[in-house]
Structure formats: structure tokens, C-alpha cells
Amino acid sequence: MNVVGISGDVIDETQQAATGNGSMDKDDFLLLLVTQLQYQDPLEPVSNSEMAAQLAQYSQLETLNNMHATMQDQLLLDQSLNNSFMTSLIGKDVKAYGNAATYDGNDVELSYYLGGNGDVTVKIYDEDGQLVQTIDQGNERYGDRSVVWDGIDQYGNTVPEGNYTFEVEATDNTGNPIQTETYTQGMVEGITYLQGSPFLLIHGQPVNLGNVISILYHDGSDDSFTTDLPSTES
Q1: Is the whole-model pTM more than 0.85?
Q2: Which of the 8 DSSP states describes residue 159?
Q3: Angle at 74 between CA 71 and CA 78, to 5 degrees
Q4: Cβ neighbours for 179, distance < 8 A, ≥ 6 positions apart
Q5: CA torsion 94→100→106→108, rounded to 10°?
Q6: Which residues touch 151 (CB under 8 Å, ≥6 apart)?
Q7: How far is CA 195 from the centre of its chain?
Q8: pLDDT in tens, 45-79
Q9: Are the C-beta atoms of residues 216 and 94 closer than 8 Å to each other?
Q10: Where are the domains of the chain?
């Protein structure tokens, strides 16, 4: 801002008294404006247009500060609601985009989506990233599909209980790759923070809340029902 009618010494002293750190907020701006009026040359006062321009700058600065404060408050509120909702999911079964699975001695259902008809291969890996089993599903139609893994590795041995991951590869009848998407389904074990952001823990793997597709509720019987969450993808 170009301040007219004040000596450099007065400006420097006012700025130092206002902040002392080289930055100005709206209160510092107002203090500088009042100081300008106090020290202006009565024979050459600040013109009306210059005063109007400086007042407009002050108004814009105050508006921006207020918007920033409002956005900060809204962000904190959103984070609080988000954390509260995530905490409420602990102990519930959810379905989410992901590729994690847990083998506990029982058969494991691995779910995925195919973007077209084609030949499908499912590969399963242990926690060290080593391939433990390859399942050839043959030709499948597009849409949501799944395969049941019995916990047997490629050598016919039962794998140790623990967390595993899987990937799905699919090609059409011309050998071109088909779009696939893997799903993970299981109980939310807890919440972990990565680089300050909260993630759900499912099968020992972090899952972003935005990747959760549905929540599975049990009513005490053998039946269950799901609540689909709105998609966060554009």
C-alpha cells in the first residue's frame, strides 16, 4: 500500500509497534491509517480519492480475514465430524475399494469388478509381497464378481493365518487389458493416522474413509443388510 503524507521514520515506527514480524493484519492496517491522518501535512492533506482507496483496501483485508477464519472453523468442524463418524465404524463390517484380505482358517471371499467380458486371473500375495496363489477364473462377464480362496498356496499347502493382498488381471478376446477394481470387506479394527490424516484399519491395511462403499449391519440373525455410502468420486 502506498501511504502518503507520512515520513518514512513514522511509518517504520508504526509498523514495528504494530507487529514486529514484518506482516500486517487488519488491526495493524487500521493503526497505520489512523497514524497517517495524525501526521499528515495540514497544507497537503490526503485527497478524498486516496482515502477512499485506502478504506477500500482495509475493507477488502477485513473481508478476506473473516473468510479465512470462517473457512478454518468449517474445516475444524468437518474434521471433528469426520473423526467422530470414523470412530463409530470401529467394530462394524464395511465394504471399500481396496485389495486386503485376512485368512483366519476359513474360506476368504475376494471381490472385484470387471469393466468388460474377458479372461480373469486372481493373484494372492502375503505380507512380504510374495506370490502365494494364482487362481484362473476363466472367462467372466463384466460387473461385480468374486472368487473364494480356501487358504491353499500354489504348492498345495495351507498358508499361515494373517493378512494378505490380491490383484485381478483381465484381458478381452483380443488380448487387451480390461479395467478392474478390487474390493476389501471386513471389520474395522481401529483408526490409524498417516501424515496427520485418519484412516480406517481393515485387515491390517489403512483405508481412506472416501473409499468406503457400504456398511454392513447385522440384526442378530443370519441375515444382514447394507447401507451404501454416497460416492466421493467426481
Answers
A1: no
A2: P
A3: 135
A4: 114, 115, 116
A5: 80
A6: 103, 105, 106, 107, 108, 158, 159
A7: 11
A8: 666 677 667 667 767 767 777 777 777 766 665 66
A9: yes
A10: 8-87, 93-228
Give me the CATH topology for the region 93-228. Answer: Immunoglobulin-like (2.60.40)
- Taking the CB of residue 31, how many other CB atoms lie within 10 A of it? 17
Between CA 86 and CA 172 the distance in angstroms is 39
185 to 73, 84, 90, 191: CA distances (angstroms): 34, 21, 14, 16
pLDDT score of 73: 62
d(CA 99, CA 186): 11
| C-alpha cell, 103 | 485368512
Nearest alpha-carbon partner for 37 in 4, 83, 72, 1:
4
Amino acid identity at 132: V
At 111, which amino acid appears?
S
- What is the grid cell recorded at 100? 486386503
pLDDT at 2: 47
Range with the poorest average pLDDT among 21-35, 59-73, 178-192:
21-35
